[in-house]
Amino acid sequence: MRTRLGAKLHIVLERYFPERRVFLKSDTDTRFIRLRPGSQLIAYAGVALLVAWAIVATAIILLDSIGSGNFREQAKRDQNNYQARLNELSSQRDSRATEAVAAQNRFNAALAQISVMQSELLDSETRRRELETGIEVIQSTLRGTMKDREAARSKLADAQEQLNGGAGTALASAGAGASMGFVAEALAKTAAERDQVILDSQDALLAADEMAQQISIMKEQNDAIFRQLEDAMTVSVAPLDKMFRAAGMPTDRIIEQVRRGYSGQGGPLTPLSFSTRGQEPTADTLRANRLLDQMDRLNLYRIAAQKAPFANPVKDAFRFTSKFGPRRDPKTGGRRMHKGVDFAAANGTPLYATADGVVTHSGWSSGYGRLVKIQHEFGIETRYAHMSKLRVKVGQRVSRGQRIGDMGASGRVTGVHLHYEVRVGGKAVNPMIYIKAANDVF
Fold this sequence. Notes:
Elements: H1 2-16, E1 20-25, E2 30-35, H2 37-165, H3 167-172, H4 176-246, H5 251-261, H6 283-307, E3 319-322, E4 325-328, E5 335-338, E6 341-344, E7 350-352, E8 357-364, E9 370-375, E10 380-390, E11 397-398, E12 403-407, E13 418-424, E14 427-429, H7 432-437
Antiparallel strand pairs: 1-2, 3-6, 4-5, 6-13, 7-12, 8-9, 8-11, 9-10, 10-12, 10-13, 13-14
């Protein structure tokens, strides 16, 4: 059976691959190689496989080359898009910085206007009280004048009665002429005093009317000043309150803590109030005291804002290279928590404290490199890492906006940048909470 199947297969192969002989001739001998149908089939199959492999390999190389070109083009497009996005963010940051500077200027102008208006209000209140005192004096003088006039009238009536009652006796006596002269002189003097009293009364009434008009005008001016002050308080206090609440800071507790720190009598934050001299307070007095309380609260907010990190540690041109939260480690490639934000700029860029505080660390700290730690009020600490130069010492008190060092690449880094952290109660929080909260105020 196997021989018969082999014979049939040989016949089929003979039809397509007839047996061939390749002769090899030399000078002394002639030989040949017999190419059987099976050998030819194997040779043709090998050549076909080789050609197919070459075609497939060439196609793969071409596809890979085309794919690489597309990938490079896509990478370039992504890079261009990323650069455009960075440029857009940079322009937005610059515009926000310009807006923040303008807002700061408006805020300072509002504070200056409030100070001027407060002085005007105090001066106006003092003038009003002086006018009220003057009116009281005039009224007292007028009452005294009226009493003197009544006394003069009484004297005149007594003199007339004496004159009428003793007329017959006076004519009979020898000294009647001298008595009549004395009575006439007394009557003339009394009449002159009466006329003077009337003139003084009229002058006092005119002065009282003028003072009443002045008081009315001053009340209108005071009301306008009150309205402007109330509007200024609303414009100034509301954004500060919103800023603290956006940062998750309880305003009542913050204000109370600042007030305790500035509670010395006669200090800059001693609350002012208008005295009522033991009388029931008027509506203007209550209104003025409410404004003074709001001014005191505004001043407390201003001090609290200086003590919390509502500022940017970099004032020159920069870009954010890493945000707060989990990220891929630039050294190992693994996932780990990034406890701050990174600002990239030129080497030596000035770095500034974001709030008033005390330096608790200024030196080398393993992965942080050259590190500065500042302890602020309300349990807040800020950290500035990877510096190239330190400009503060441990124990030194610093103010918001004071230069504390230069940007560098010390420690565990891949390039020049600032690693900035904010910690509350020892726990790292997102610094952008404070920076964004202050965008609409400073």
